[in-house]
Amino acid sequence: MASDLIRVDDDGVLNLTISTGDAGTALDHALVLESREALRAVTRGKLEAGAVLLRGAGKNFCAGGNVAAFAAADDRSDYLRGLADDLHSTIEFLYETELPVVAAVKGWAAGAGMSLVLHADIAIGGRATKMRPAYPGIGLSPDGGMSWLLPRVVGAARARHIIMTDQILDADRALDLGILSEIVDDASVEQTAHDVAAGLASGPRGSYRAIRRLLHHSATSTLGDQLTAESASIAALGSTPEGVEGVDAFVAKRAPDYAAARR
């Protein structure tokens, strides 16, 4: 990986930094591309990780797209299509890895930044965390999957209201809506999010992959299809080293050692 902002740490967490202090913590296109390559490497078995941590390196998680770069483009339509396509292919690889995703949502998460928070399984915010769709403010429409995910999180009517009126959601409101999972002190957002991701990386990775897969497909499955998928999934996990270790540890009244089971 070309940048230490995109790395797997000793805890097995794939850190994907999506913004820096440059350009006002706007979404960094180069880092999006680096993130895509790292996620692609995971799906190809060339990079091992147990969880993903989405983060920003500046004061905000991500303040949205780089609007100054939009304005400077010779062909704005072509430029925006390229940015959106690159972001969307990165998100597709994020799902293909089937790794649990944690977001460290400090400061602002606006525009594409808010979209990325919605893709996290667990989003940790601080008291100063704020979210905003931001697209109507510059005469554009959502990207990054916001129009698909926000209705599924908060309901279709509420999603229309939030996006069309460009609402600013403070941390408490985002928590109530289910966008944030937990609020901690602002200074603790990064560490708490990393600790959660590290805990997931050290846990039963096959279980987490299956949970994420089942939850993702449930949106378009019938109850019958979902029950069939659940039966197949739990049966398959029951004979894996992690599944055997988890059950045996429970019976023996000891803590499971999933890392040893994977070796």
Description:
- With 263 residues, this protein is an alpha/beta fold.
- Helix content is 51%, strand content 14%.
- A hairpin with a 4-residue loop joins strand 1 (6-8) and strand 2 (13-19).
- Helix 9 (205-218) packs antiparallel against helix 10.
Largest sheet descriptor: 6 strands, mixed
CATH superfamily of the largest domain: 2-enoyl-CoA Hydratase, Chain A, domain 1
Mean pLDDT: 96
Intertermini distance: 25 Å
CATH class of the largest domain: Alpha Beta
Count the DSSP helices: 12
What name does CATH use for the topology of the largest domain? 2-enoyl-CoA Hydratase, Chain A, domain 1
By CATH, the architecture of the largest domain is named: Alpha-Beta Complex
Proportion of residues in helical segments: 40-55%
Instruction: Kindly estimate the percentage of residues that lie in beta strands according to DSSP.
Output: 5-15%
Structural class: alpha/beta
Tell me the series of helices and strands, N- to C-terminal.
EEHEHHEEHEEHHEHEHHHHH
InterPro entries: ClpP/crotonase-like_dom_sf, Enoyl-CoA_hydra/iso
Protein name: Putative enoyl-CoA hydratase
Organism: Gordonia sihwensis NBRC 108236
GO molecular function: catalytic activity
